[in-house]
C-alpha cells in the first residue's frame, strides 16, 4: 500500500488519487481514508496488485479548516503562542528538574495570560462602561443605550448594581472559553491512541523518543485540570474586581461595618481559592508513558464551581444597597495590570535562563536562539495579550469619551494606555525588519542570478529567467532567518513593556486629567501614539477577523497563513487549555491505527506512507507510535518536509538529530526530497552530502532541480514553472524513490533471492540534482553538477494517483 498524506493547504481525495470516482474506506466527514472506487475491494483480489501498490489517501483538512466561523479561533492566538513555548525547550534530558521547571514556568505564564485577558474584559465592562460612562450624565446622554443606568433615583443608578450587571460580560467570556475548550476536546482530541502502555519507572520511558511514548497524544487528565484551573481563575478575576470596588467604599468613614466585614471575608476566600488554582497548575505536568485518561474529579468539578459561587456572592455583595455611593474617578486597575506585566517579564527571563541551561547540557548547533526560543515565543504571546488588552481598552475608552466637559472620562488605567501606545512603535519596528529582509532577498537574488544557468549545462542563459529562479531561491532562504526576527521583536517587546511599567510609575494621573509634569513635546507625542494605537487596534481587529475568515474559506490565503497556524495547533494543549484544538491528537492516532491494522492482517504486507509538508510531520509522528516490528513493514517518503528545517530547529527536544536518526534506524527505508526554491521543506540531515543510493546510507535526495528545465526543449517546448513547495510528484525522482522503497520492503520481507515488487510501469529516470556539499545547508545554484546531463522530462501522470496537494 501507498498511504498519501497531504499538507497544510488541503486537497480533495479526487485530486490526491487522480480519479474522480473515490470511496471512503474508513473515517468520517472530518478526517477519513479514501480509495479509488475500483480499488475498494483490493484485499479480495490480491492478484491484481502484484505490479503496483494499492493507493489510499488520508484527508485531514477539515481538522484545521471549515466554515468561516472558525476564524473566531484566531482570537485564541495568544493562548496558542504561549502553549507553543512549552514544546520548544532545548534538547536536554527528557526528565529532570530543569525540564520540570521549564514546564512549570510556561504553565504559570499561561495562567497569567488568562487572568490578563479576563481582567481586560473587566476593565472594559466594569470600569469604562458601568462605572465611568454610566456614572457620568454627559456620557449616558451621548450613549443612550446606557440611559437606564444613569440618573440618581433608578434601581440601576447605584454603582454596585451596575457593576454586578456588567460582570455578566466577563463571566460569559470565561464560560465561552470553557465551552470551546471542552467542546473541541470532545470533537478533536478524544481519540484513543494505540494501547501500548509502559510502566512509569521503566527506563524505556526516558530512553525512547518522546513522540513514540503511547501517552504523548492523549493528555485528557492534564487538559481537564488546566481547564478547571483557568476557568476558576477567570471567575476569581471577576470576583476580585467586584470585591475590590465595594471594599474600597465600605472601609471609608460612614460605610457599613457589616458589609465591610463581608467584603474582607470574600477577599480572603478569593485569595484562598486563587492559591488553590496556582497549586493545581503547578502540581503536575504531562504524563506520556501511558494514556493519561483519568480525571481529578475533585479539582475539575469543585474548583470552577467554588470560583463561580464566589463570583455570585461578590455580585450580590456589590448589588447591596449603598445609598451614598457615587462613581468618581476610575476603579482600581493600575496595580493589577502592572503586577501582571512585571510577573510576566520575570517569568520570561527565568524561562530564558532555564533554556540556556538545558542547551548547555546538550548543545545542538542548529537550535533556534541557543535554547531561548521558548522565552522569545512566550514573550510574543504575552505581548499579543498585552497589546490586545491595552488596545481594546483604549479604543473603547476613546469611543465612550464625549466631546463636552461634562462627558470626559478618566479612561483606562495608565499602564493600558502605555501598552496601546506601544502598537505604533512595534509596527514601525516590524516594517523596518521587513524592509531589511526584503533588501536581503534582493541582494541575495542579485548575487545568484549569474550562476543559475550553470545548474543547467548546455542551455543558453536568459537574464529574466535567471532572475526569477534566483529570486525564488533567495525568498526560500529567508525562512532560515526567522529566529533572529522573532528574537528582535521579543527583545523589543520586553524593553517596551518595561518602559510602559516605568512610565506608569512616573506618571501621576488625576481623575479626569491626563499626565502631570511631562514636557509639552513628550505630552504631544504620547497623545499621538495613544490615538494611533487606539485606531490601529480597532482596524487591526477587523482585519484580523477578515483575514482569518478568508484564510479558512480561500485556498490561496490559507497557503499564506496555514503553515504558522498548523505548526501551532499541531502540538497538544500542555500549557494553556484555551488554546485552539490540537488536530494531531486526531490525525496521528488515525494514521497509526490504519498502518497497524493493515500490516497486522498479513505479516507480509508492505506500506509506504508518503507525506507532503505538514503531512510528513504527521506521518513521522504516526510511525513513531508503531511498535518496532510494525515499523519494519513500513517505509517513509517525505517531500517538502519541515521536519528538520522548522521542527528540528524550533523543537529540538522532539525532532532533534538524535530523534530523527533513531526514526531512520527503526525504519526499513526513508527518503526525503527537497528543493532550494522551497521556503518550507529542507533536508533531514543538513550539511551531509547526499549519497544518491537507496540503501541505509542516506535519507535526503536533493536539492532537486526546480524548474525541471531552464528553457524550451524538444520534450518541453513550453516554459516549465517554478514549483517551489508544490507538485513534488511532478518530479521523476518521486516515482523512483517510492518504487525503490517498495523494492526494499519486498526484499526485506522475502529474504535474499526472492522476487520483490516490480517497479512502476514507467522506467526510472535520473533527475539532475544539486549535490549538498559538506557543511552547507542551502547550497549555491552554481554548485549544480557539470556532467552534461540535460533537463529531465516530466513524467506522464499515472491515472491512479495525483499529487497530495499543491500547498504544504
UniProtKB/TrEMBL annotation:
<feature type="transmembrane region" description="Helical">
    <location>
        <begin position="484"/>
        <end position="508"/>
    </location>
</feature>
<keyword id="KW-0812">Transmembrane</keyword>
<keyword id="KW-1133">Transmembrane helix</keyword>
<protein>
    <recommendedName>
        <fullName>Integral membrane protein</fullName>
    </recommendedName>
</protein>
<feature type="transmembrane region" description="Helical">
    <location>
        <begin position="261"/>
        <end position="282"/>
    </location>
</feature>
<dbReference type="InterPro" id="IPR029058">
    <property type="entry name" value="AB_hydrolase_fold"/>
</dbReference>
<feature type="transmembrane region" description="Helical">
    <location>
        <begin position="104"/>
        <end position="126"/>
    </location>
</feature>
<feature type="transmembrane region" description="Helical">
    <location>
        <begin position="302"/>
        <end position="320"/>
    </location>
</feature>
<keyword id="KW-0472">Membrane</keyword>
<feature type="transmembrane region" description="Helical">
    <location>
        <begin position="71"/>
        <end position="92"/>
    </location>
</feature>
<feature type="transmembrane region" description="Helical">
    <location>
        <begin position="528"/>
        <end position="548"/>
    </location>
</feature>
<feature type="transmembrane region" description="Helical">
    <location>
        <begin position="416"/>
        <end position="439"/>
    </location>
</feature>
<feature type="compositionally biased region" description="Basic and acidic residues">
    <location>
        <begin position="688"/>
        <end position="700"/>
    </location>
</feature>
<feature type="region of interest" description="Disordered">
    <location>
        <begin position="681"/>
        <end position="704"/>
    </location>
</feature>
<feature type="transmembrane region" description="Helical">
    <location>
        <begin position="336"/>
        <end position="356"/>
    </location>
</feature>
<feature type="transmembrane region" description="Helical">
    <location>
        <begin position="163"/>
        <end position="180"/>
    </location>
</feature>
<feature type="compositionally biased region" description="Basic and acidic residues">
    <location>
        <begin position="763"/>
        <end position="781"/>
    </location>
</feature>
<feature type="transmembrane region" description="Helical">
    <location>
        <begin position="228"/>
        <end position="249"/>
    </location>
</feature>
<feature type="region of interest" description="Disordered">
    <location>
        <begin position="745"/>
        <end position="808"/>
    </location>
</feature>
<feature type="transmembrane region" description="Helical">
    <location>
        <begin position="368"/>
        <end position="396"/>
    </location>
</feature>
Amino acid at each position: 500500500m501507498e498511504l498519501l498524506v497531504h499538507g497544510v493547504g488541503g486537497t480533495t481525495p479526487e485530486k490526491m488519487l487522480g480519479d474522480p470516482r473515490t470511496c471512503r474506506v474508513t473515517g468520517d466527514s472530518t478526517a477519513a481514508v479514501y480509495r479509488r472506487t475500483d480499488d475498494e475491494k483490493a484485499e479480495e483480489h490480491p492478484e491484481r496488485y502484484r505490479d503496483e501498490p494499492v493507493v489510499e489517501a488520508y484527508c485531514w483538512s477539515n481538522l484545521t479548516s471549515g466554515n468561516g466561523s472558525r476564524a473566531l479561533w484566531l482570537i485564541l492566538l495568544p493562548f496558542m503562542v504561549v502553549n507553543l513555548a512549552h514544546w520548544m525547550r532545548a534538547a536536554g534530558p527528557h526528565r529532570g528538574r530543569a525540564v520540570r521547571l521549564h514546564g512549570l514556568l510556561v504553565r504559570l505564564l499561561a495562567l497569567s495570560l488568562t487572568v490578563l485577558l479576563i481582567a481586560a474584559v473587566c476593565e472594559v465592562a466594569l470600569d469604562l462602561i458601568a462605572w465611568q460612562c454610566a456614572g457620568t450624565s454627559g456620557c449616558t446622554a451621548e450613549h443612550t443605550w446606557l440611559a437606564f443606568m444613569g440618573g440618581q433615583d433608578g434601581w440601576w443608578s447605584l454603582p454596585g448594581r451596575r457593576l454586578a450587571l456588567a460582570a455578566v460580560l466577563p463571566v460569559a467570556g470565561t464560560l465561552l472559553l470553557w465551552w470551546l475548550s471542552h467542546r473541541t476536546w470532545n470533537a478533536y482530541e478524544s481519540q484513543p491512541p494505540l494501547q501500548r502502555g509502559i510502566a512509569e519507572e521503566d527506563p524505556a520511558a526516558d530512553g525512547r523518543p518522546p513522540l513514540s511514548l503511547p501517552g504523548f497524544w492523549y493528555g485528557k487528565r492534564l487538559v481537564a485540570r488546566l481547564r478547571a484551573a483557568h476557568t476558576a481563575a477567570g471567575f476569581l478575576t471577576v470576583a476580585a474586581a467586584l470585591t475590590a470596588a465595594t471594599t474600597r467604599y465600605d472601609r471609608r468613614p460612614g460605610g457599613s461595618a457589616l458589609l465591610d466585614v463581608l467584603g474582607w471575608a470574600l477577599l480572603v476566600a478569593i485569595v484562598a481559592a486563587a492559591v488553590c488554582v496556582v497549586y493545581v497548575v503547578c502540581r503536575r505536568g504531562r504524563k506520556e508513558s501511558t494514556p493519561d485518561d483519568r480525571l481529578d474529579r475533585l479539582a475539575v468539578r469543585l474548583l470552577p464551581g467554588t470560583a463561580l459561587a464566589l463570583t455570585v456572592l461578590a455580585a450580590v455583595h456589590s448589588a447591596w444597597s449603598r445609598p451614598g455611593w457615587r462613581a468618581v474617578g476610575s476603579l482600581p486597575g493600575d496595580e493589577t495590570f502592572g503586577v501582571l506585566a512585571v510577573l510576566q517579564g520575570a517569568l520570561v527571563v527565568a524561562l530564558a535562563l532555564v533554556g540556556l541551561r538545558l542547551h548547555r547540557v546538550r548543545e545542538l548547533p542548529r537550535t533556534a536562539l541557543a535554547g531561548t526560543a521558548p522565552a522569545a515565543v512566550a514573550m510574543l504571546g504575552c505581548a499579543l495579550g498585552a497589546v490586545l488588552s491595552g488596545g481594546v481598552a483604549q479604543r473603547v475608552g476613546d469611543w465612550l469619551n464625549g466631546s463636552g466637559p461634562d462627558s470626559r472620562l478618566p479612561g483606562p488605567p495608565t499602564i493600558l494606555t502605555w501598552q496601546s501606545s506601544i502598537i505604533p512603535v512595534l509596527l514601525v519596528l516590524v516594517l523596518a525588519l521587513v524592509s531589511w529582509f526584503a533588501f536581503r532577498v534582493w541582494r541575495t537574488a542579485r548575487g545568484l542570478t549569474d550562476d543559475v544557468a550553470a545548474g543547467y549545462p548546455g542551455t543558453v542563459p536568459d537574464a529574466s529567467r535567471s532572475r526569477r529562479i534566483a529570486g525564488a531561491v533567495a525568498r526560500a532562504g529567508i525562512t532560515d532567518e526567522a529566529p533572529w526576527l522573532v528574537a528582535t521583536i521579543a527583545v523589543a517587546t520586553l524593553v517596551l513593556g518595561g518602559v510602559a511599567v516605568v512610565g506608569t510609575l512616573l506618571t501621576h494621573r488625576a481623575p479626569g486629567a491626563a499626565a502631570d509634569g511631562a514636557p509639552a513635546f513628550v505630552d504631544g507625542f504620547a497623545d499621538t501614539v495613544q490615538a494611533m494605537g487606539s485606531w490601529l487596534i480597532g482596524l487591526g481587529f477587523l482585519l484580523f477577523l477578515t483575514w482569518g475568515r478568508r484564510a479558512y474559506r480561500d485556498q490561496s490565503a490559507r497557503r499564506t497563513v496555514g503553515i504558522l497556524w498548523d505548526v501551532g495547533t499541531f502540538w497538544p494543549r500542555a500549557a494553556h487549555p484555551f488554546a485552539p484544538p490540537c488536530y494531531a491528537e486526531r490525525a496521528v492516532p488515525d494514521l497509526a491505527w490504519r498502518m497497524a491494522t493493515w500490516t497486522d492482517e498479513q505479516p507480509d504486507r508492505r506500506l509506504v506512507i508518503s507525506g507532503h509538508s505538514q503531512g510528513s510531520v504527521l506521518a513521522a509522528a504516526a510511525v513513531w507510535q508503531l511498535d518496532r516490528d510494525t515499523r519494519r513493514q513500513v517505509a517513509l517518503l517525505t517531500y517538502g518536509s519541515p521536519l528538520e528545517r522548522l521542527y528540528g530547529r524550533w523543537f529540538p527536544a522532539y525532532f532533534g538529530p538524535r530523534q530523527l536518526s533513531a526514526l531512520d534506524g527503526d525504519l526499513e527505508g526513508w527518503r526525503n526530497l527537497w528543493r532550494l526554491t522551497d521556503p518550507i521543506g529542507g533536508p533531514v540531515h543538513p550539511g551531509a552530502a547526499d549519497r544518491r543510493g537507496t540503501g541505509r546510507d542516506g535519507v535526503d535526495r536533493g536539492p532537486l532541480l526546480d524548474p525541471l528545465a531552464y528553457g524550451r526543449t524538444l520534450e518541453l517546448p513550453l516554459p516549465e514553472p517554478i514549483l517551489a513547495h508544490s507538485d513534488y510528484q511532478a518530479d521523476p525522482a518521486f516515482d523512483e524513490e517510492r518504487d525503490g522503497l517498495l523494492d526494499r520492503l519486498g526484499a526485506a520481507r522475502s529474504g535474499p533471492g526472492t522476487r520483490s515488487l516490480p517497479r512502476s510501469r514507467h522506467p526510472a529516470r535520473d533527475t539532475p540534482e544539486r549535490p549538498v556539499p559538506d557543511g552547507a545547508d542551502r547550497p549555491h545554484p552554481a554548485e549544480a553538477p557539470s556532467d552534461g546531463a540535460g533537463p529531465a522530462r516530466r513524467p506522464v501522470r499515472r491515472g491512479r494517483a495525483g499529487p497530495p496537494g499543491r500547498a504544504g
